[in-house]
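Field reference: sequence -> structure
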Amino acid sequence: MEEANKTVVSEFIFQGLCTSRELQIFLLMPFSALYLMTVIGNLFVVILIIIDRHLHSPMYFLLAHLSFIDFCLSSVTTPKLTTDLLKGNKTISFGGCMSQILCVHFFGGGEMVLLVTMAYDRYVAICRPLHYTSIMDTQKCIWLVLISWIIGFVHAISQLILILELPFCGPRVIDSFFCDIPLVMKLACVNTDTLGIVISADSGVLATSCFILLLISYTYILLTVQLHSKDGSSKALSTCTSHIIVVVLFFGPCIFIYLWPVSITWVDKFLAVFYTVITPLLNPAIYTLRNKDIKNAVKKLKKSQVNLEIIFRHLF
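Structure field:
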């Protein structure tokens, strides 16, 4: 009898972003274009940093990992969202749903910690410039990135284990476009109020702690920048501004979704689209448009392509 009360739901059904068939067809091209731009933009940043030796510094090493995480985070939800816009019956297997939960929290948690690491890198570069190369050496950078991946994985596994313990034996309609923990918990056949508090506390503590650390770090950095000369502080201020924009865009929706006591469906959907679809696209754009080193690397790449074209024309 106890086994019979365990999970019997083999798949879940997504309601998607909206119920209008016409609007779903209309949204197909924009979301497809957004995902394509996200993939190209983030992978371009990663490849550019790898091939340009002038970008082989701790800041760009961390930026390459941020772009890779954004690519992965977007790939967890956006392809499924896009293909479901063509379907009347939007389903996902139980295993697929649990995998989405694991990956979203893995990459999301890892990105939170990585953003803190990037803030630490800027703190050392601006507040302790003479010791920067000794503090942010290659080994330490690798360890900092590994720690962000490990914390993200531990966070995701802890969330998934709590969800897997729940019995799902009845309702299976999720009012969203991907499996998010608060929505999946509503479908369980037991009272999940206490569990909801535990899970929200887990996600909330990680997000809020990282966000507070980032606020403290960048406040201290900006105060330090004011004490330096204008020539030395302009580049640092520009870099920090880019980081702060990314932090606000990423943490704002996450904190709102997991800590705001009142759940409004359309608001939650909009914020979910924002941090899983829009933010991974904005990150490479923000860093590329505001970063002179990246711009110079792109110009060099264009020149090398032109030179290669000239050589091939002469050869063939």
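Note: The two ends are 77 Å apart (CA to CA).
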